[in-house]
Amino acid sequence: MTRILIVEDELEMVTMLRTYLTSEGYDVDVASNCAGAISAATATPPDLVLLDIVLGKEDGRDVFRELRLMSDVPTIFLTGRGLETDRIAGLKMGADDYMVKPFSLGEVSARIESVLRRASGATSNADTDEPSMSFGPLQINELTHEVRLDGELIELTSKEFALLAFLAASPRRVYSREQLLENVWLSSPEWQGGATVTEHIRRLRSKIEVDPDRPRWITTVRGVGYRFEPPHAATSSNEESTEHADS
Ligand code: CA
């Protein structure tokens, strides 16, 4: 369960955030001042901190400095002050994001998800929203390990993702099961049989193919192996003719 620590002194705001984030499935902890925040974070380390800058007479940024001495826990600053200079100062300090009150609850969860996603990819400065490989309706993002088909997120295991990303990195190039074992499993064919590859291809197809028996993205080249097929608009007519020679 993802644990979020809310550091805020305004009761109404705390209640609203706690109720909402709990309903979203997060494990929520609350602190209203600097000392409370540090002891809460020490007792049970949070996965993310929502930190208000104004904590009565205290400054939330002091909490942030203390937290950073302990860990790199992703932190989103909250503030009632919408001044651009505050925003920049917060980000310069190393905050992962910044939200200006009033914000909608939808915005809160979107920011939290985005910051957690970035943190898990350990690529805090990269633009993780851009897919690294895009093939019409199929988008593969190697930073976030996400695959989208027609905009919909496809749940893949890490090995299924690695297999798809490897094949898609060289569209139409055929790889044997042995080559896939060596490159995706980093394992010698002598240690692991080709059946491992066959099984993972089958599972991957069941997730990304409309008709897994007549695959459109990952095709079998009989007697050789598998290849990734980009959308036809992207292939030249020359390559089209070689496809017919295979079958
Ligand atoms: Ca406050």
Tell me about the largest β-sheet: 5 strands, parallel
* Intertermini distance: 50 Å
Proportion of residues in helical segments: 40-55%
User: What is the highest CATH level, the class of the largest domain?
Assistant: Alpha Beta
How many structural units, i.e. domains?
A: 2
Parts with pLDDT < 50 across at least 5 consecutive residues: 233-247
Q: Strands of the biggest beta sheet: in what spatial order?
A: 2-1-3-6-7
Number of strands: 13
Bound molecules: calcium ion
SSE order, one letter for each helix or strand: EHEHEEEHEHEHEEEEHHHEEH
- Helix segment count? 9
- CATH architecture descriptor name of the largest domain: 3-Layer(aba) Sandwich
CATH topology (level 3) name of the largest domain: Rossmann fold
Q: Round the Cα radius of gyration to an integer and report it.
A: 24 Å
- Which percent range describes the beta-strand content? 15-25%
Could you walk me through the main structural features you see in this protein, from its secondary elements to its overall organization?
Helices cover 42% and strands 20% of the residues. With 247 residues, the chain is an alpha/beta fold. The chain has 2 domains: 3-129, 3-Layer(aba) Sandwich (Rossmann fold), CATH 3.40.50.2300; 133-228, Winged helix-like DNA-binding domain superfamily/Winged helix DNA-binding domain (Arc Repressor Mutant, subunit A, Orthogonal Bundle). The strands form 4 sheets. It has a 5-stranded parallel sheet, with helices on both faces. The protein is elongated. The protein binds calcium ion (CA). Calcium ion (CA) is lined by residues 8-10, 52, 54-55.
